[in-house]
Amino acid sequence: MSAERTYIMVKPDGVERGLVGEIIKRFESRGFKLAALKFVQADKELLSKHYADLATKPFFPGLLDYMTSGPVVGMVWEGKEVVKTGRKMLGATNPLDSAPGTIRGDYCIDVGKNLCHGSDSVESADKEISLWFPEGVVGWERKLDAQIYE
Ligand code: UDP
Ligand code: MG
């Protein structure tokens, strides 16, 4: 069993639209393990660090406005290949390119309102988890793991 972790975040539109539970449910049902969860109104300073690699993009100012337009739900999910699998569960960045069955493919249309974030690599996940959860995350043993992993 793997202790790989990813940072998944429900963006302000997802919170506003009442999709927090739906997004959590998909990760829970898949068998991933919750390690941290936080409801937070982020500021532009935090989001500039989170999206530092996009700082020169034309859509960056709009992205910061979007991401500070309301609270977000940040989570850490743990499990085998959870980074790559989490991205698949979210769908493509542009929701219109997202397959039905993915979160974006089922619930949204525009790239600037695409509901959720997921780390794109194990390295990004480590950075994002330290940024959003500087206090650390809960390490816990789940008895159910014996029914999920062979
Ligand atoms: N984004 C946007 N316009 C674009 C590309 C990205 O508004 O043309 C936003 C969108 O919300 C996306 C976020 O910026 O989720 C981060 O972009 P990235 O390329 O990292 O996509 P992601 O990793 O979220 O799929
Ligand atoms: Mg990204």
Task: Describe this entry's structure for a reader.
This protein has 150 residues and is α+β, with helices and mostly antiparallel strands. The chain contains eight helices and four strands. The protein has a four-stranded antiparallel β-sheet with strand order 2-3-1-4. The protein binds uridine-5'-diphosphate and magnesium ion.
Can you give me a brief rundown of this structure?
By secondary structure, the chain is α+β, with helices and mostly antiparallel strands. 40% of the residues lie in helices and 16% in strands. It catalyses: a 2'-deoxyribonucleoside 5'-diphosphate + ATP = a 2'-deoxyribonucleoside 5'-triphosphate + ADP.
Question: What layout of secondary structure does this protein have?
Answer:
Layout: E1 5-10, H1 12-16, H2 20-30, E2 33-40, H3 44-50, H4 60-67, E3 72-78, H5 82-90, H6 103-107, E4 116-118, H7 122-132, H8 145-148
Antiparallel strand pairs: 1-3, 1-4, 2-3
The structure holds uridine-5'-diphosphate and magnesium ion (MG).
Protein name: Nucleoside diphosphate kinase
Binding site for ATP: 11, 59, 87, 93, 104, 114
EC number: 2.7.4.6
